[in-house]
Amino acid sequence: MSVNSIRALQLASLALLTGAASLAFAEDITFVSQGGAYQEAQSKAILEPAAKKLGLTLKQDSSPKAYPIIKTQIESGNVSWDVVDLPTGDCIRGEQEGLFEKLDLSLIPNAAQLPADLKDDYSVGYISYSTVLAYRTDAFKNKAAPQTWADFWDTRKFPGQRSLRNLPRPTLEIALMADGVPADKLYPLDVDRAFKKLEEIKPHITTWWTSGGQSAQLISDGEVDMIQAWNGRITAVQADGAPVAFDYNQGVLETNSLCVLKGSPHKVAAMKFVNEAIDARLQAALPMIIDYGPLNPQAYKTGIISPDRVAKLPSAPENISRQALLSAKWWASQDGVKAEERWLAFVQKK
Predict the structure, then answer these.
(1) Tell me, what CATH number does 340's domain have?
(2) Is the same domain home to 201 and 308?
(3) 341 shares a domain with 207
């Protein structure tokens, strides 16, 4: 065998060994979100590009109520999820219950771009959305349409079928605004006052919806004339041609955050993935597909989002100024937990 042949064989063997080593050390991570159109959009805009950049194999799971599953995984010691996308209040509760890893900021430099109130030692802000008052334009043709939550409560001036969400957050905030509390003076919530106001409207609520899909169908099919709903669900039915309108006035801006499960078998890779998920350019890509607002302010400076598109997003400065900002910390407090427990008795009582 010639020297060149031997050299070629050595190089080929080295390449095989290197490839095998890469496969042996390649990591996968499991990302969990809420499913539906939202998860499809984030997969295309954020998750798949982030995994590709890091050379990770991305697995996905979905659950609209992931929190109890997370608790079960941690308590059993059988952790199969790595990064979770949760309402920020659930992240805060999880921190208190020891469900999440402390974030290694040396692996998440993009966190420095987030405002202080959108991050802590265990979670980083990811996306925003708003709960808004939407209505059927054909139900209010040639007459005034409801513009505030006080209007929603005014069944004489604004007759019609109504629907609210079967969850206290942010329905209590909505009730207080209907009762005259300014959007920037909601916290700490006056829970007694909120439930008293809800008792007024309860007889007029035809459906207490439990999923975003249900809320969209209720207003799209004309089963209700006005509804508390998420902005993204309403713009979706508008795109399908339904005669539905909304405004961000007295909306309630909520956020989702990213956390890494305690005991994640891929902790370092998970931290790196979180960093990519809040990258400004990937954050800017999401609202090009679905109506959720980026929480990295630098996303608005990438040039990816047009001015017209910015104006329609819940986290755009001009829209935030007209909304209430939901306090995830209040909902994670003992008062918030008690309000959630009280809600069950409220909706079950005839």
Answers:
(1) 3.40.190.10
(2) no
(3) yes
pLDDT digits (tens, 9 = 90+) for 198-230: 999 999 999 999 988 899 999 999 999 999 999
Helix/strand number for the chain, H first, E second: 16, 10
| Count of domains for the chain | 2
- Return the bridge partners of 230, or none: 131
| Beta carbons of 283 and 255 less than 8 angstroms apart | no
The answer to whether the beta carbons of residues 232 and 38 sit under 8 Å apart is: yes
- Sign of the alpha-carbon torsion through 221, 179, 292, 30: negative
pLDDT digit string, tens, across residues 107-145: 999 999 999 989 999 999 999 999 999 999 999 999 999
Whether residue 100 sits in one domain with residue 143:
no
pLDDT band at 23 (very low <50, low <70, confident <90, very high): very low
Nearest CA among 171, 178, 143, 170 for reference residue 158: 143
Omega before 188 cis (within 30°)?
yes
Is 320 inside any structural domain? no
- 291 in the same domain as 330: no
Same domain? 271 vs 338: no
DSSP bridge pairs for 56: none
**Phi, psi angles (nearest 5°) of residue 213:** -65, -40
**Cα–Cα distance measured from residue 311 to residue 238, given in angstroms and rounded to the nearest whole number:** 17
Same structural domain, 42 and 120:
yes
Q: Coil, strand, or helix at residue 349?
A: coil
More confident residue, 187 or 34: 187
349: exposed, middle or buried (Cβ count in 10 Å: 0-12, 13-18, 19+) = exposed
Domain that residue 264 falls in: 6-128+255-315
